[in-house]
Design brief:
This protein has 221 residues and is of the alpha+beta class. The chain has four helices and ten strands. The chain is rod-shaped and about 155 Å long.
Length: 221
């Protein structure tokens, strides 16, 4: 049986429906998450290879995240400061890394301050007598010896270069003996020994320098 032909009205209606279907299809666009451009995706999403994704690259993610398979994911061990890391770790280039052991040996501990020192005593020209300044210094020296519990002190007498070698050796010895006797009178119980170097260590070339040569050095033993 032959199929009846459509009337002109039917043909027109059918064509109109086809055009409408095409128009509606074009207006709706691809079904999400498929896309042709970013406008087909939700806000803050991007069209990548025909699919809506959260990111194209790391630059689209927040700090501490990276773009992986189109999604922003947290970076393991990300940090902004050492306080974000665990014990024994430092933050370097936004990553927690184990702190390297220092190859530098720690500085030796600073020895405790003794609080006092034994100072040299100075004398006048061709003199072995102790003046007030020397006695005051020896009083301080006696206190220091007792305070620190010093067990022994050696006294060395010296002179300026003027005079003969023999005379200067004898003068240096007398100066050392004067200091020895005065410290003993102050109740110093440390072992005291003395000797003379005479002019051997003299370095002065005029009165200012010679005044520094005329002395007794106190050396803790």
């Amino acid at each position: 049986m032959n199929r009846p032909e459509m009337s002109a009205v039917q043909r027109g209606l059918h064509a109109g429906l086809a055009v409408l279907a095409l128009t509606l299809g074009a207006a709706c666009g691809p079904t999400y998450p498929k896309c042709d451009s970013d406008t087909d995706c939700h806000k803050a999403e991007f069209c990548v290879n025909g699919l809506c994704q959260q990111c194209r690259g790391d630059q689209d993610c927040a700090a501490g995240q990276r773009c992986s398979s189109g999604a922003c994911q947290a970076v393991p061990g990300y940090c902004t400061s050492t306080t974000d890391c665990g014990a024994g770790q430092d933050c370097e280039n936004n990553a927690c890394v184990t702190r390297a052991e220092s190859s530098v040996a720690p500085a030796p501990p600073t020895p405790p301050s003794t609080g006092c020192t034994l100072e040299s005593l100075y004398f006048g020209f061709d003199d072995d007598a102790l003046d007030d300044s020397a006695r005051n210094k020896l009083g301080d020296a006696a206190s220091c010896i007792k305070q620190r519990g010093i067990k022994a002190v050696h006294l060395t007498g010296l002179t300026d270069p003027r005079g003969t070698e023999e005379y200067n050796l004898a003068l240096g010895d007398r100066r050392a003996q004067s200091v020895h006797k005065y410290l003993t009178s102050l109740g110093v119980e440390a072992t005291l020994t003395h000797s003379s170097m005479g002019e051997e260590l003299a370095s002065g070339t005029e009165e200012t320098g010679w005044a520094r040569d005329r002395r007794v050095d106190l050396q803790e033993k």
